[in-house]
Amino acid sequence: MGSDESLVQQYLTPSNIFGAFLTYIVISLVADFFFSPKYPTSIPWVGHGKSLFGTLRNTFAGFTQSKSWMQDGYDLYSKHGKAFVFPSMLGATAQTMIPRSQMSWMLDQPDHVLSTSAAHYEVLHGDYSFVSKTCLKDPYHEHVVHKNLARNLNAVIPDLDDEVSRDVDELLGTDTETWKKIDPLEGMMMRIIPKITNRVLVGEPLCRNKDYLDNMLGFTMDVIRGFLLFTITPQILHPIVGPIHGLAAKYHYWRTSQYSLPLIKQRLSDIGKKDAGDPEFKNWKEPNDYVTWSIRTSIAEGRRDELNPSMIALRILPLNFASIHTTALTGSATLLDIFSSSPDVVQSLREEALRVYTAHGRKWTKTGLSSMYRIDSAIRESQRISAFSLSFIQRKVMVKEGIVSPEGVHLAYGTIVAAPWIPLAGDEQFYETPEVYDAFRYSRERERYEGLSAEDKAKEDVLKFRQTGLVTTNDRHLPFGHGRHACPGRFFVAHELKMMIGHLLIHYDIKPLKERPQPMWVGRNQVPAKADLEIRRLKVE
Ligand code: HEM
């Protein structure tokens, strides 16, 4: 026993541990270096380049330097119509950044040439993070959302209105005397958005069930922890680390399924009875939510496999993942941007919210929401200046022999191609004073147009204004992606955030912030700023 201990002491010295760690990193890097897709010599790299030594330096420097590398690549190459390679960091693969001038080529490629779902599968570690590989390999839930969400949005507005006011008031209370300090991301958005999201996914009362929501959020956090874990773990070790990491997601799925499965089974049975002409179901109205949309779409398309209750329950997970943090980050960044702007901005937004809400019978309606140009602009401007990722569009090369880009670059099978966003969002060529948060950047012209006479309106180019709405994507606005795979949830997000911010402005007073709290960048993503908003119910409404 004693000699075992002395052996351990002899070998477990700090220098041996460090040596073992270094050997492990080097072996992993060498393996990753040889197994990664090959890049032609003609394509430039940012960071420390593509040599073995460069790869080692990129791995560590990438944590703090990624944002400036992206800017360098944009200035040196993208702006001149050239692609560049954004280096890998251990487990996160290198990506080829396609310039704006080639974006329509990239987005027009069919899915069997450049695939969105395969890129998402790789970036989100679909082998391990989503309980079943099928879930992301064949993303039927995305198809269901593309087909149904926007089409049903008008009908679900009253539900959303109910959920937003109920959840905001429950969280912030009705005390008109005491200021409440609250972090807009963790304290507010992350507590409200999951309920609103699940109102359209599974309906009430499940959307407010604490245990269901806690475990659903647990699942989304598993995926996010996976990002970090897989980034710091060399790719050759993913098959060992991945299944262990995947256990947490499986556990959280099992916990959520205790609630979602009975609901889904009941819905399948009810829909079945209605379709079979059961007289008891003659006047039964199907709930308007994802579960119904999914069942109806699968029946219409003959996808019997998608009528399996566990499959439907499973697909609710990636939808929660796609919705919750994205919306919460966008909403909290917008609040920080608005409340660190001049008081005139807040006043002007409040005036709009109150005017529209009152004009539509003190409720939110489709027409009312789409006439809220100022808040629409304030959110879009936040997506520009406070975006949470360096890039929002990713595609994977699926052709075995590779493809050739318009500039003549050969992109090998397996290459991830992407489009830079942060440097484009700050480009003076497209945005005047890009460093300034100008809440009404997109609404000023729109409001001027709306104030014109019918005769003068006829002389204006109305398409110009439509190009700058929150839900409009183009090659200069990428936070919802662009092209046929652009986010199908964006119409819902626009309604949800406008209602929520509108409700806050109408019913609550929020103290202005002295300055905009600054976020940090780690690797390719932003770590949001911690902040406290001071909020109190308004006395006069
Ligand atoms: C502010 C909130 C959100 C942001 C910033 C966002 C952003 C994005 C982005 C960048 C993409 C990739 C687009 C591309 O590759 O061209 C995407 C795809 C997607 N989003 Fe969102 N999203 C948000 C909210 C939502 C919500 C609420 C839902 C569902 C209810 C949703 C469902 C989806 C789906 C299903 C896809 C895959 C579309 C496809 O590949 O065809 N998203 N989203």
Automatic annotation (TrEMBL):
Keyword match Metal-binding: yes
Keywords from the UniProt entry: Heme, Iron, Membrane, Metal-binding, Monooxygenase, Oxidoreductase, Transmembrane, Transmembrane helix
PROSITE patterns reported for this sequence: CYTOCHROME_P450
The keyword Transmembrane helix belongs to this UniProt entry's keyword annotation: yes
One Pfam family cited in the UniProt record for this chain: p450
Stretches of the chain forming a coiled coil according to its record: none
Entry superkingdom: Eukaryota
Transmembrane segments: 17-35
Binding site for heme: 487
GO molecular function terms attached to this record: heme binding; iron ion binding; monooxygenase activity; oxidoreductase activity, acting on paired donors, with incorporation or reduction of molecular oxygen
Cofactor: heme
Metabolic or biological pathway: Mycotoxin biosynthesis
InterPro entries from the UniProt entry: Cyt_P450 (IPR001128), Cyt_P450_CS (IPR017972), Cyt_P450_E_grp-IV (IPR002403), Cyt_P450_sf (IPR036396)
Family affiliation: Belongs to the cytochrome P450 family.
Protein name: Cytochrome P450
Organism: Massarina eburnea CBS 473.64
